[in-house]
Fold:
Amino acid sequence: MGSSEVVDADDDEYAKLIRKMNPPRVFIDNDASDDATVIQVDSVNKHGILLEVVQVLTDLNLIITKAYASSDGNWFMNVFNVTDRDGNKLRDKEILNYIQKSLESDAHFLPSLRSSVGVKPSNEYTSIELTGTDRPGLLSEVCAILTDLKCNVVKAEVWTHNTRAAAVVHVTDESTRSAIEDPKRLSTIKELLCNVLNWDNDSRRAKMRVSMGGTHTERRLHQMMFDDRDYDRAGLVEEWDKKSKPQVAVMDCMEKDYSIIFLRSKDRPKLLFDTLCTLTDMQYVVFHGMVKTGNSEAYQEYYIRHVDGHPVNSEAERHRLIQCLEAAIERRDSEGLELELITEDRIGLLSDITRIFRENGLCIRRAEISTKGDKAVDTFHVSEMSGSPVDAKTIDSIRRQIGQMILIVKQSPLPSKPSEETSTTGFLFGNFFKGCSFHSLRLIRSYS
Structure:
């Protein structure tokens, strides 16, 4: 079945009937592997199905240690080895039941790929999406404006990459603690925030969108940064250490009319999700895929075609695909010191904290803001504005200004030295797959 047929099937009534008659089947096995829970999902094939399944697993903060995906005509099979964040098998029956019901639910598999998976619009908060040029103090200025406009930030996520910044911020009215719906007030918020974002002469103008929720934050951040072309490195100084930089190769498989992607990078949570977001947004269909992790390193391999049914057919397309996949991995790999702050939540808290960071010469590379009950739980990845590591005296100064709040300092891990086995295996695969023999493929995979 060609990839264009897979996409067209989404709008075909007969295909919808077939999906309804053949809902996804989920099998969860805690005995098949010594160190992981094995989850198999069989479903009718459609574009983006692999991302939808992975998103359910990553939203539960599960770690995918191995994965295999393969399509066979109208059917798609996914197998995942997963653990919890501590590396243990999944034993909680409530979580296992939730996985089963979520992946087998027809409501989960939504037709639109530009929206999020399984997320409904909310009347509890207003969602503000921002993209623009990154600079020191940007988040502090945004938070100050929201506080002045009587907006309370209940949740937010901020990413920076390649001089670009993107944020999804959930706010409520300070007095009613509900979504802000007044068009005039929303227009004022948009005008003031756009003024802050449009501070330079960058050809990529700042963007802002207001909605009543209904988006999956991390999924949306990938889309926003992709649309903002954060993968474009033209004129930029390379900041990434070559040892930690993701290694991406795109090769031709003439025999089967696929393009094959090989990725090797340091392993981390949500890596597979990040990769698949970009492949889906670039309108590539994954027909076969494999993920293997070990020794702090991850290896990914995908057999793809564009939705029009063709493999990568030019050097320009190949170069752009490599750039976009590198960016997808790097966005969440913010280097710097990780700070976690846990304290009583209050109006203006985030504005005060970001101001203190700015006044102490810190630049926020990435941030996750959340509230749990009456507690604010915020995580920041920070560096000196020069890009240098944060000095211990700076942390002491911040602690004195914050007062009784709890500030946990987590040292960012150093880039792991690639394991010899994985490093060799990763790019030996390129030579093995030039002929793209599926008999050879089975032999190679038997090592695992």
About this structure: The mean pLDDT is 83. DSSP finds 13 helices and 16 strands in the chain. The longest strand covers residues 151-161. The radius of gyration is 23 Å.
